[in-house]
Fold these 3 entries.
Entry 1:
Amino acid sequence: MFGLFNKKKFEIYAPVLGKVIDITEVEDAVFSSKMLGDGFAVEPETDCILAPCDGQIVLLAGTKHAVAIEKDGVQILIHVGLDTVELNGAGFEVHIKENDSVKQGDKLITFDRNYILSQEKKLTTIVVLTNMADKVKNVVKTLEDSSGKILVIEPK
């Protein structure tokens, strides 16, 4: 009963297989300066974005290039590619809708890497905690392996 109000830590996994990089290395100042929050990025080797944790879909961009999941009040934005909003959804297919509940590993978005690259867009996929200041007490970041947990979050 006394632990009723204690929120447990949870893990965020890479949403796509590939080389994991620190968010400060992303070639976009909005992300690399952590203007939207802290996180990490992946240079994708596959074309499928998976849920990085259990949660609820709270945002799905009309242009299909970004999705946000909420877990324990923490919002996790997954942004596929750089400047891909300019493609207006071309090259992307979504497999979920807003308010869906998802489990870690569920398919969220697939993308046509050849099309996106032919449009001179980078595939760098960013994972960012957009409401860190309000909802996150602590983040432990490890960037060694894209098949394992990358962030451990302790909600406030």
Entry 2:
Amino acid sequence: MNAKGQYGLHSVDGDGAAAFEALAHVELVVSDCDGTLLHTDKSISDAAKDAVRRLHEAGVAFTVASSRPGAGMRHIVETLAVDMPYASYNGGNLVDPRTREVLAAHKLPRDAVQTSLEALAAAGVDAWVFVGDVWYLTNAEGAYVPRERRTVGYDGVLVQRFDDVDLDAVDKIVGSTADAPLLERVEQQLQTRLEGRANAARSQSYYLDITHVLANKGEAVRELARRKNVPLERVAVLGDMSNDIAMFEIAGVSIAMGQASEGVQRRASLVSATNDADGFAVGINALLSARG
């Protein structure tokens, strides 16, 4: 890994000169939440709050994109005074922060829902189904149910079987397991089986998100930039997981957190500190410093 850097950032390949130059021209910042903007304990640090405040003061637009449901992002959006639409469900929904209205939605096709639920069941991976802001589950004792409850801020709805849910209105399916290698294999299998119908990408080592083929953070960033009338080359994005790569690929500059896997870091323009070492704030402060 190339350690040469500037402003606390470095590049994996090359000296990153073009990426550092791009920082100076950013007009819109879109950040992932968990593992990026937030510390591991789900808190928003004072450094992150200050960085976003300074972005606003500099006239740089800011919003967030997450695999969370919209309701699970409200505390973040309100704390940081986000005033433009934000993307939930990996871009499956665009939400107005003032009215909480869903401005655009991409629901999973019914056949992709069936394929996904069958594959997760066959692998012995707990499945969750999200419709609107409602989180449905069949196993209340699942290993990550308490974590998800803390993350989104509300309880899931226990059902006997997912056939009791409106499977024509699904926004996201999540597979959750502590067996990270198993989940990686299921991710690869579903990427092949769902090609052209849906996306399957891990948002954490223990979460596999399945969403509509257009419900990805790359498409979300594209739409957010269009609504703000900002060219994609003047957009900066920050993230840490494989579901963030889609936005890395289209933004003018992308910043990966220091704890991201080598594969994710190699897809980013620049690499920051870890999320718990305020890698988000380091990235934003670098951007502001580059603007002069």
Entry 3:
Amino acid sequence: MTNSSLNILNGELNLTERDTKHIWHPYTQHKTTAKHIGIVRGKDALLWDEDGKEYIDAIASWWVNPFGHSNDFIAESIYKQLTTLEHVLFGGFTHEPAVQLSETLIEMLPDNQQKMFFSDNGSTTVEIAIKVALQYNYNQGKKRTKIIAFENAFHGDTFAAMAASGISFFTEAFRNSLIEVTRIPVPVKGEEEASFKALKELTQTGEYAAFIFEPLVQGAAGMVMYAPEALDELIKICKENEIFTIADEVMTGFGKTGKTFACNYLTQQPDMMCLSKALTGGTIPMAITTFTQELFDGFYDEDVNKALFHGHTFTANPTGCAAALASIDLLQQPEMQENLQRINQMHLEFKTKIEQHPRVTTVRVLGVILALELATDGNDSYYGSLRNKLYDFFIENGVILRPVGNIIYILPPYIISNEQLTKIYNTVEAAIENVK
């Protein structure tokens, strides 16, 4: 008998019931959503609920756990740091983990990235990048107050990040409170010229400070993918017109696309990069926005009012920095790089098989990311009935997948076994056959 069953017999509430009393969950309409599953333990690619049921975490818990749950190496690094220095304010002080992490990342990033600003999560790293783009121009006496972004983008839930995002039901209530953002088409195959043309027209106005993009893969839009050559051209257009470029690598960074960063596929280099999620291996919230020296110099002045007045209480938390250093160490191990190739090969084999199914319209693979679209009769809204039926089917069968409308995507931890991947594929096939 499980602990949860014993609790119920003893008249005690289980985790799910206790949760319902006080907790407000993200992206959730509580009136229509099933109760939340109480998870009590995780190891590698697996999670267990309070009734002992096992789940394969096929999306690395919103893309943050590339090395699996309860990773011993990262845990040991965190423990050692906690017993030395758990936190110190970053205003007026510094510490070894932050300096070492900055030095390590500089060696990994495109060579034009020279400065980094620490924060808490993906939204805040985007918020900082947009603020820097706008204030840089303000400091220079230029009236560039608008931003360019892709259609159907998603960059986070703080205000500037919301403004840059194009999934309307996430942001509709705040439409009149956001900075002005103009959207251009995503340069997917066949739409490249339309995207180039739209950007060129905007650059002629002199009103835009920056162009923000999710490089090569739009995550929340359903893993929409486009070619590096198209993004190179867009960045080139921006550079020619003094518009800063912001690569939002919150989802794509640290191996998801098969390379350390999606920007590693490019010949052009962005002016800013946003890093979070897998940065700390899914252990401690942390984010970093990186910048060129030119951007930093735009704030370096005798005038204190030209400083970047932005900060977070836990900026550059030493424990988070230690987790990030351990996570990067794991990523660079030959075995982990082989895992990226292994997962990619298995995805490609599954793609060859499943794309022949009559209900499947397209299948996309890049690195450890696989996404397939199902043909629908219009029942394909973001949180529509098809999506909910698919989600319930996956949970019932012990696989954590969160479809986006009619799009099923897989983005597993890098340490997942072949057997676990095969179960995910088999469960997806069963869902395609049985969920209508």
